[in-house]
Every structure is written in structure tokens, then in C-alpha cells.
Amino acid sequence: MSKKDNGAPVILAYLNEKNRPYSAQDVFCNLQKQHGLGKTAVVKAMELLAQEGKIKEKTYGKQKIYFADQSQFRDVNDADLKSMDKQISELSAEVQSLTQSCRQLDTELKELNSSLTTEEMMAEIQELKAECSGYRARLEKIKSATNHVTPEEKEKVYKERDVYVKEWKKRKRLASDMMNAILEGYPKSKREFLEEVGVETDEDCKVVVPNT
């Protein structure tokens, strides 16, 4: 676009094509990216077009509104308006239908993109087969083992564990009682006492007495 025309032909063509009211700011925002028009140039061009009578100008308060000269368009009767309304309704329905189809196709495309390819599925099947084979071999090994624990042996182990846990708790309680009795006349803290006598608690070893 040359500096001489100042964007007026572009603006005039745009207003005639759209045939609706615009402010200078609206036209600037709509055309600046495509045609590189500056805001000052747009304002001056629209004022010039209005002065020349090529477009119409209306003032509402502090804002000016510009629109195409309606005398250049043929009159539209009621029949034409009804026909255009019908066409608009049909096109709107078609747009809605196409939009819905596009959304459905977009969803299907996303599902396809997230799905495995045939090669990937074959590779995963082979991995699963190898994994299953490993589990079968392990199961057969367990079944063929001769050192299974009998229910009686299992019960005995649990009973012995209960005995040891009870003894652990008993000795811990006795040691705690003895230590508390000593600490009543000890001038330092419990932690300093434990360090001095070289005693490690369950907490120091990060162990917890299991439940019986």
C-alpha cells in the first residue's frame, strides 16, 4: 500500500463489503494486521471518505460511527428479506452440522493418535507373552519344590513370634522403668544419659515393636 492513498481504498472496500457500522478503532483493529494500517492513518482516511461522501458518518456523543453509503445498494423487498432469512437459517444449520462433524472427527483423530500402532501392539504382545512365560516357569518351580511350609510349621512360627514380641515389650518396659528411676536423681537429660552409658533405643535403631 502506498503512502499516497493512505489506506482509503482498502477501508472503503472493507466498509462496502461488510456493510455494517464501525468506529475508526474497529477498522484499525480489523485491518492493521493484514494491511499494516496505522491508527492515525485510518482515522484520517475515514474522515476524508466521509467528507467526499463515499461513506456515511454519525456521531454518538464523543464517538463517530462510519458505514457504507446505502444509496449504492439496491432496495430489498420483503420477499428478498424472507429469502435471505431462509438462506441464513439453512446455512446456520449447515454450519452447526459441520461443526458437530468436525468435533466428532477431531475426537476420533485424538483417539487414533493415542492408540498403539500395529507394530507397537505386536511388540507389546511379545513382551506380555515373555512375561507370562516367566510367571509360568516360576509357578512350576514353586509347585515342584519339596520344602513347602506345612500349616503346623507355620502355626509354630507364629506362636514363637508372639512369645518373642511379648518378651521384647516386657524387657523394654523394665528397662524404661529402671532408666526413669535413675533419671530422677540424674543431673543431665535423658539423651545425655543414654549417650553416657552407651545405650541405643529402638528409636535410635529405627525399629518398631510389632503387634502381637
UniProtKB/TrEMBL annotation:
Superkingdom classification of source: Eukaryota
- Asked if the record carries the keyword Nucleus, the reply is yes
- Keywords assigned: Coiled coil, DNA recombination, Meiosis, Nucleus
Q: Which InterPro entries match?
A: Hop2_WH_dom, LZ3wCH, WH-like_DNA-bd_sf, WH_DNA-bd_sf
Chief place where the protein resides:
nucleus
Q: Which residues form a coiled coil?
A: 81-145
SUPFAM superfamilies named in the record:
Winged helix' DNA-binding domain
Task: Please state where this protein is localized.
Answer: Nucleus
Asked if the record carries the keyword Nucleus, the reply is yes
Q: What sequence ranges are listed for the domain Leucine zipper with capping helix?
A: 149-205
Residue ranges of domain Homologous-pairing protein 2 winged helix in the record: 10-68
Q: State the Pfam families in the record.
A: LZ3wCH (PF18517), WHD_TBPIP (PF07106)
Family the entry assigns: Belongs to the HOP2 family.
Query: What protein does this entry describe?
Result: Homologous-pairing protein 2 homolog
Give the species this sequence originates from: Ataeniobius toweri
Q: What is the gene called?
A: PSMC3IP
